[in-house]
Amino acid sequence: MVYADYATSTPPAPEVVDEVVRCLREVYASPGSMHRPGREARRVVEGARERVAELIGASPGEVVFTSSGTEANNLAIKGYALANRRRGRHIVTTAVEHYSVLHPLQTLAREGFSVTRVGVDEHGCVRLEELENAVTGETILISVQHVNHEVGTVQEIERVAEIAESRGVALHCDGTCGGGILPVNVEELGVDMYSLSAHRFYGPKGAGALYIARGTRILPLIEGGTQEQGYRSGTENVPAIAGFGRAAELAKAEMEQRLEKLWKLRRSFLRELEGRAEFRLNGHPERVNPVYASVSFPGISGDALVSELTGMGVHASTGSPCMAQAAKLSHVLEAMGLEQELVRGTVLFSFGIFTSLEEVHRAAEAAGAAVRRLRGEEQGEG
Question: Distances from the Cα of 214 to the Cαs of 62, 63, 98, 136, 191, in angstroms?
Answer without folding.
Answer: 7, 10, 26, 25, 11
